[in-house]
Automatic annotation (TrEMBL):
It is an enzyme of class 1 (oxidoreductase). It holds the Pfam family GFO_IDH_MocA. Residues 175-278 form the GFO/IDH/MocA-like oxidoreductase domain. SUPFAM superfamilies: Glyceraldehyde-3-phosphate dehydrogenase-like, C-terminal domain (SSF55347), NAD(P)-binding Rossmann-fold domains (SSF51735). Keywords: Oxidoreductase. The keyword Cytoplasm does not apply. Residues 310-325 have a biased composition (Polar residues). This is 1,5-anhydro-D-fructose reductase. The gene is afr_8. Residues 305-328 are annotated as: Disordered. InterPro entries: Gfo/Idh/MocA-like_OxRdtase_N, GFO_IDH_MocA-like_dom, NAD(P)-bd_dom_sf. GO terms for molecular function: 1,5-anhydro-D-fructose reductase (1,5-anhydro-D-mannitol-forming) activity; nucleotide binding. Its EC number is 1.1.1.292. Residues 6-121 form the Gfo/Idh/MocA-like oxidoreductase N-terminal domain.
Length: 387
């Protein structure tokens, strides 16, 4: 029996809703039943533009509606905490834009509120849901080689020569023990004056806006938090517009982060292990008109281009050409995942597949907290002392 669609209500009518509302509407099993604005006129305009049945004046009024099962919170960062708590109180599931909140303490409260209300919570960090991220995860899960391989690795750097096929053909590369992660995300001045990204009271600043992605990639690649960080910021009108940071983990892995509102477009990362590195130059979101790009660089200098399975569909001529229509759409994957969680009968199942995403969100925000503290204090910060 087909389950009924998950009906989303949208809070906010800004820039991101132009894209995400269409993504919600085009995800199977999901509908958008209402959109709310602070003003009735703008709600009407947004509902008409997107073909949404109900235009709602005021966010509280949307939360009170019976035709809304879940909300998509597309408000400035300073409002995410408040409206997530309100949505949970109203019994609505939540998809909340990034950065999840202003501090890790707020994120912990938001997740606790969702747990108390038995509703699902997910942050809209879509790259975590791209199929290639699952492949990165798999390569990283082989980070610790068996002892005999580790000994061999210490003796020679030719483990990946072609004549030595890997043990598991499904995992053709082993990154080996993680040594360094580098993540850089920037966009050159894309904002109008008055934009929340440039307003301190709305949670502005590049560290929260784009550092969210870079810190998230570093946490994802390592799986834990550094023991020490040091960050510096270039400030303009009281807002951090460029941030650079270094960090060191308890296992001696290191990382560097760079983000900027005044630097050319970058959405890059390099995850370097002892044996190979994963390189990706569009990890936050593949370019709309191009296939997702990532590579594995072996110690020998050999480079392999990774083509996600959805981009290697054979076309009608059998030529194996990439077909854009079949490409992984990370936002729809994210929405479908949340809709699946909403349909899980938690009374019948003890699984909590959302836990890893909650851990990722909390720890990303903890890392940002530490970087902000380092910028403020102009000194390295020990995370162990902050937990
Ligand atoms: N996942 C992604 O790829 C992206 C995520 N984002 C994230 O989405 C969120 C929203 O960003 P974006 O859509 O660009 O922001 P916009 O400023 O374009 O829109 C924010 C909306 O929030 C509502 N709002 C409520 N209170 C305020 C306030 N005090 N000041 C301004 N707006 C307010 C407004 O809707 P109304 O007046 O109708 O109530 C406004 O349209 C941010 O957290 C951002 O980081 C942004 C871009 C991409
Ligand atoms: O998340 C985001 C993705 O890209 C934008 C740049 O145009 C960011 O500023 C935004 O908040």
């Amino acid at each position: 029996m087909a389950s009924s669609p998950v009906r989303f209500g949208v809070l906010g009518t800004g820039r991101i809703t132009r894209r995400l509302v269409a993504d919600l509407q085009s995800t199977p099993g999901v509908e958008v039943s209402a959109i709310a604005s602070r003003t009735a006129e703008r709600a009407r305009w947004a509902a008409d533009s997107h073909g949404i049945p109900a235009a709602v004046s005021g966010y509280d009024a949307l939360l009170a509606r019976d035709d809304v099962d879940a909300v998509y919170i597309a408000l400035p960062p300073s409002l995410h905490h408040q409206w997530t708590l309100a949505a949970c109180r109203a019994g609505k599931h939540v998809l909340c834009e990034k950065p999840v909140a202003l501090t890790a303490a707020e994120v912990v409260e938001m997740i606790a509120a969702a747990d108390r209300a038995n509703v699902r919570f997910l942050d809209a960090t879509a790259w975590l849901h791209h199929e290639r991220t699952a492949q990165f995860r798999q390569w990283l899960s082989t980070a610790t080689p068996p002892p005999d391989v580790a000994t061999a690795a210490a003796k020679q750097d030719e483990l990946f020569l072609d004549e030595q096929p890997p043990a598991d053909p499904a995992i053709p590369f082993r990154v080996g023990p993680l040594r360094h992660v580098s993540a850089a995300v920037s966009f050159p001045n894309p904002f109008q004056s008055g934009d929340h990204r440039l307003a301190a009271d709305l949670g502005g600043g590049v560290l929260l806006d784009l550092g969210w992605y870079a810190a998230g990639m570093i946490r994802f690649a390592h799986g834990g938090l550094p023991e020490q960080v040091y960050a510096t910021a270039v400030m303009r009108d009281g807002i951090d517009v460029r941030v650079s940071a270094t960090m060191r983990f308890p296992d001696a892995a290191t990382a560097t982060l760079s983000c900027g509102f005044d630097t050319t477009t970058r959405k890059w990362c390099e995850i370097a292990g002892q044996d190979a590195s994963i390189v990706c130059d569009d990890f936050t979101r593949p370019w709309a008109d191009k296939p997702a790009r990532s590579w594995v660089h072996e110690a020998s200098g050999k480079v392999h281009t990774f083509v996600p399975p959805s981009e290697t569909q054979t076309d009608s001529t059998g030529a194996g050409q990439s077909q854009p229509g079949t490409r992984c759409h990370q936002e729809r994957e994210m929405i479908a995942r949340l809709a699946d969680w909403i349909r899980i009968d938690t009374a019948a199942e003890s699984v909590t597949p959302w836990q890893e995403f909650h851990d990722q969100a909390v720890q990303t925000q903890m890392l940002l907290d530490a970087l902000a503290a380092s910028i403020d204090a102009a000194t390295p910060i020990d995370l162990a002392e902050r937990v």
